[in-house]
């Protein structure tokens, strides 16, 4: 770290205030609009005409975000303006991901960040070529992650389109093809159950062990985020027999954020889950598991299911509501025939998801090492850092 120096953020940059803005949620403009938690819409004219870092100003969670093109910031956030050309703003973004922005609290009724407090934070800064090199390494990983996410969105859209084409569109429930029938989800499953919290058994989470899935572990795109799992020991797992998950079980969130779904794959096992996640175990002699998964993604099915939610401390669905969901059931032979393409698409989605997890782990492992100067990036090839976890 011979070429690194310690500064305060106030020495090298200023935080510029965002401005109030109307109609950004409905605007047809192409300029991204950012608030304290990220992008919130679009507008016609930029407030900041250079790529920069957006830092949350108000709210319990104040995020750090980056825009590679001109953007607008509303009045719940700041944007970073360098005082000289010796600060690479992408480096600044990655550095600030390690700062506890939420710990900078002004003490007002609404949690907020004061510029004065931010300016006192220390930052270790190498020379500009090293900053750029570090930013390039981390950006390359983020770009691969984003590429895989976009691929998965496209693959998921294709799978849903095929499912609708084969089993939904032009299918009249009053005049079903021969051998098709309308049934209930409970009729074509071995089990619909849920878990419990280990603390109810006077057990605690542990540092590592059996994966324990929560609603937050299930992403909006249908994968399980390995970085948002808890862990239980084997003794606790044995006590929670009812909620041990199996390969190709379908997980469905039934409390808090409703309707998040994932299909369990071997990579996540062994695993267990809590009372906010339902386990739907298909009867493979009657139904293709992915048929249930894509049926439960249909908008009409979700609307009908969510209409039966109960509002308590938080919104929730009962297991009996899931069991009573109506579902069109084609003969298994037709399911098997039509699902060849959908299964292949789903396998690609799963493979991409695994790579996203590996890349994310690599990025999060490298980030503090790169920002501390532990890795000399000017003497190390990027491939040498990437290869161990991707091979």
**CATH H-level homologous superfamily name of the largest domain:** DNA methylase specificity domains
Put simply, the count of helices is 10
Chain-averaged pLDDT? 91
Second CATH tier, the architecture of the largest domain: Alpha-Beta Complex
User: What percentage of residues falls in helices of 4 or more residues?
Assistant: 25-40%
Overall 3D shape: elongated
- Determine Rg (CA atoms, Å): 25 Å
Write structural notes for this entry.
34% of the residues lie in helices and 21% in strands. The protein is α+β, with helices and mostly antiparallel strands and 391 residues long. The protein has three domains: 5-125, DNA methylase specificity domains (Adenine-n6-DNA-methyltransferase TaqI, Chain A, domain 2, Alpha-Beta Complex), CATH 3.90.220; 127-170 and 336-391; 181-329, DNA methylase specificity domains (Adenine-n6-DNA-methyltransferase TaqI, Chain A, domain 2). The strands form seven sheets. The chain has a four-stranded antiparallel β-sheet. Strands 11-17-14-15 form a four-stranded antiparallel β-sheet. A hairpin with a 7-residue loop joins strand 5 and strand 6 (64-67). 32% of the residues are buried. It comes from Pontibacter diazotrophicus. GO terms for molecular function: DNA binding; endonuclease activity. This is Restriction endonuclease subunit S. InterPro entries: Restrct_endonuc_typeI_TRD, Restrct_endonuc_typeI_TRD_sf, Type-I_RS_S_subunit.
């Amino acid at each position: 770290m011979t070429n690194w120096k310690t500064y305060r953020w106030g020495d090298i940059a200023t935080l510029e205030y965002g401005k109030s803005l109307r109609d950004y949620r409905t605007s047809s403009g192409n300029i991204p609009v950012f608030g304290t938690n990220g992008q919130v819409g679009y507008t016609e004219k930029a407030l900041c005409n250079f790529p920069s870092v957006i830092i949350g100003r108000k709210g319990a969670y104040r995020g750090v975000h980056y825009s590679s093109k001109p953007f607008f910031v509303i009045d719940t956030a700041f944007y970073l303006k360098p005082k000289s050309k010796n600060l690479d703003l992408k480096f600044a973004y990655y550095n600030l991901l390690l700062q506890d922005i939420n710990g900078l609290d002004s003490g007002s009724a609404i949690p907020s960040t004061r510029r004065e407090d931010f300016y006192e934070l220390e930052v270790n800064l190498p020379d500009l070529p090293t900053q750029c090199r570090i930013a390039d390494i981390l950006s390359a990983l983020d770009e691969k992650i984003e590429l895989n996410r976009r691929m998965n969105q496209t693959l998921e859209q294709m799978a849903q389109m095929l499912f609708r084409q084969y089993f939904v569109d032009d299918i009249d429930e009053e005049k079903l093809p021969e051998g098709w029938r309308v049934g209930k989800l409970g009729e074509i499953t071995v089990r619909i159950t849920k878990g419990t919290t280990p603390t109810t058994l006077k057990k605690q989470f542990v540092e590592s062990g059996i994966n324990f899935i929560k609603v937050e572990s299930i992403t909006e795109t249908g994968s399980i985020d390995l970085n948002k799992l808890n862990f239980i020991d084997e003794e606790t797992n044995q006590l929670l027999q009812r909620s041990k998950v199996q390969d190709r079980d379908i997980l469905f969130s039934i409390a808090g954020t409703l309707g998040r779904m994932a299909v369990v794959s071997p990579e996540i096992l062994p695993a267990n889950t809590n009372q906010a996640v339902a386990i739907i175990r298909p009867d493979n002699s009657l139904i293709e598991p992915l048929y249930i998964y894509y049926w439960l993604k249909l908008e009409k099915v979700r609307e009908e299911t969510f209409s039966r939610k109960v509002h308590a401390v938080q919104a929730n669905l009962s297991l009996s509501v899931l069991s009573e969901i109506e579902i069109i059931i084609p003969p298994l032979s037709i399911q098997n025939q039509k699902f060849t393409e959908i299964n292949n698409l789903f396998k690609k989605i799963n493979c991409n998801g695994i790579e996203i997890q590996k890349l994310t782990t690599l990025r999060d492992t490298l980030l503090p090492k790169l920002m501390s100067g532990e890795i000399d990036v000017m003497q190390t090839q990027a491939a040498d850092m990437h290869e161990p976890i991707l091979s």
